[in-house]
Amino acid sequence: AANPKDFVTKMRAGLESDYVSSNLHHWIDLIFGYKQRGDLAEKSHNVFHNLCYPGSVDLNSILDPNEKNSVVTQILEFGQVPQQVFTKPHPERKMTAPHPTPTVIKSDSTIDEKIPDKEELAPEKSRRLSAVGTSLDKYILSEKIPVKEHVTFFIECSETRSMYVGTASGMLYTYRLPAMKYAYSVIISNVSLMCAMDLGHSLCVGSSDGKCYFLSKQQGNVYLAFPAHYDTVSDITMDSNLIFSSSWDSSVKVWDVVKGPGGKVKTLRLFNEMDHEDRSTILEL
């Protein structure tokens, strides 16, 4: 490519081409569909190591710290297969009309299509980001935080001057600001972490197992795993003493926070629940 704009234009043209559109369902079958596991996966040469499949091992049942560290290291090194979504062949994309060819923008074009600098995309203080598939390579933090996993969110807590980074492996990384110095990491869940909310004393982390995990920021350990939903917790926010959680189980729940000694969350008491026809993916108060 001649320049960044030319690169984006060519990549867009390739991804939106008729060839990709007519074969996209085959890729879905392999990654998310019926060819991901079982005999069809073997016939399609689409089989990975056992530890690459979510839920294949219960890390909490491994008592030997050396063995546990070995398993975690292997999971982090090879990554994990996405959750299986479809058990039947995915239908082919309907193409009722030819795809328009993207406009090629020359490098000397006067069209204002500025590509944001890393500094412009850097998160502001207390900003929370819950975006599955987000890569820290997009941000200025990428030059200082060596996260080699699939990042699902990150949240900056000005009170503790820390940055918390959630990943698809269930691992949460903590870095101290402003030097971005690695502090510690902790396994929150066996499946992907999805979102987080700063509660002051604690960090509330939503997971794809439907639970809300409460982490003591001072001690760096999980002290409460609360079953909030039947499916993935997609977003969390707070207003006064109420926690709002949305989920792929098509519900939004409002929780009254019951605190114990030292300000830790003792439990959540259901205050209200709102059902929807489709997945609830994001909250905004």
Blueprint of the fold:
Blueprint: H1 4-15, H2 18-31, H3 39-43, H4 65-78, H5 118-121, E1 128-130, E2 151-157, E3 162-167, E4 171-176, E5 181-187, E6 193-198, E7 202-207, E8 211-216, E9 221-227, E10 233-239, E11 242-247, E12 251-259, E13 265-275
Antiparallel strand pairs: 1-2, 2-3, 3-4, 4-5, 6-7, 7-8, 8-9, 10-11, 11-12, 12-13
What's the short story on this structure?
This protein has 285 residues and is of the alpha+beta class. It is built from 5 helices and 13 strands.
Which features does this protein show?
globular; 4-stranded antiparallel β-sheet; 13 strands; 285 residues; alpha+beta; 17% helix; 5-stranded antiparallel β-sheet
Write up what this structure looks like:
By secondary structure, this protein is of the alpha+beta class. It contains five helices and 13 strands. A five-stranded antiparallel beta sheet has the order 1-2-3-4-5, with no helix packed on it. The chain has a four-stranded antiparallel beta sheet with strand order 6-7-8-9, with no helix packed on it. β7 (202-207) and β8 form a beta hairpin. It is globular, with a radius of gyration of 21 Å. The termini are far apart. The model is unreliable at 96-144 (pLDDT under 50).
